[in-house]
Design a protein that fits this description.
Blueprint lengths: L1 E6 L3 H15 L3 E5 L10 H6 L3 E5 L7 E5 L4 E5 L13 E6 L2 E7 L9 H19 L7 E6 L23 H13 L1 E3 H5 L25 E6 H4 L2 E6 L15 E5 L2
Parallel strand pairs: 1-2, 7-8
Antiparallel strand pairs: 1-12, 2-4, 3-4, 5-6, 6-7, 8-10, 9-10, 11-12
The protein binds one DNA strand of 15 nucleotides through loops.
Length: 257
DNA sequence: ATGGTCGAGTATCGA
């Protein structure tokens, strides 16, 4: 089972690239973030034509998350599960796909350390933990995929010194990832490639992509039963190239029997 | 050394 995640930075702007990618990457499940559209305009029919059922949680021109699956979609939860209070942003959606409870997350950016946005980000990560408990806890086969806006370790940024004092790398943010690991999840890509300095996001500006100035902030966190069966993982840098790319590349893991 | 681009919408803001 191939489980993928991709922050598309507007699905309207990226639809042709997403269709192309589904065609050659053949994921069983694809989590999308930053669709930047309301539910009313989500292209369920186009994805159905490619063999994918889909669920979407979006309210307007910002945020927006979705799950596409060709192995079934059931038990969909929009936002955080009850009784967790969801905020007005549409940043999380969950659904059971082929026996795996899949969650697509777009974690708040944080903007500046110690700003209200930063506190909101940390609070949001706390709610995500409660959400995963509500879905059944670490004993459930679960994949939590998305743009975490957190680089788990120094090796996940092109130059740790360049991020001094910035968000995405602070101990409090990294503690949120560590809490997920202590709860029972494994960073799927990192477990397959313990040493590789590969990134999933590059700012559009300044030729950052070609200069390899990136960050690995798009993660597929999986519970133990899946973690023990990971047989491959990939960041598809080719999908960051060419005409009208997203600033993020898709990432996937393969779960084998 | 700084900033360099996109996508939202159509002036700027957010990333």
């Amino acid at each position: 089972m191939r489980i993928a995640t991709w922050n598309v930075n507007s699905l309207k702007a990226r639809m042709a690239r997403v269709e192309e990618w589904l065609g050659y990457a053949q994921p069983d499940v694809l989590c999308l973030q930053e669709t930047k559209m309301p539910d009313a305009t989500f292209p369920h029919l186009a994805f159905a034509g490619l063999g994918y059922e889909s669920v979407h949680h979006g309210s307007g021109q910002w945020n927006g998350v979705a799950i596409l699956s060709r192995v079934g979609i059931e038990d969909t939860v929009l936002g955080f599960a009850e009784p967790i209070v969801s905020d007005r942003d549409t940043r999380v959606i969950s659904a059971r796909c082929g026996g795996v409870y899949v969650t697509s997350v777009y974690v708040p950016n944080g903007r500046e350390v110690d700003s209200e946005h930063y506190e909101y980000k940390l609070e949001w990560m706390g709610k995500l933990g409660a959400h995963l408990d509500a879905l059944g806890g670490p004993g459930v086969e679960m994949a939590v995929c998305g743009d975490y806006n957190i680089a788990p370790a120094d090796m996940d940024v092109w130059d740790p010194a360049a991020f001094a004092g910035a968000t995405h790398v602070t101990p409090r943010e990294r503690d949120a990832i560590r809490s997920m690991e202590q709860w029972g999840m494994v960073d799927g890509f990192r477990s397959v490639y313990p040493e590789e300095r590969l990134y999933s996001y590059w700012d559009y500006r300044a030729g950052n992509f070609h200069e390899h100035r990136g960050m690995r902030i798009d993660l597929i966190m999986v519970t133990a039963s899946l973690a023990g069966r990971l047989c491959w993982a990939l960041v598809d840098r080719n999908a960051r190239k060419g005409k009208q790319p997203s600033d993020h590349a898709p990432v996937f893991v393969d779960v084998c029997d």
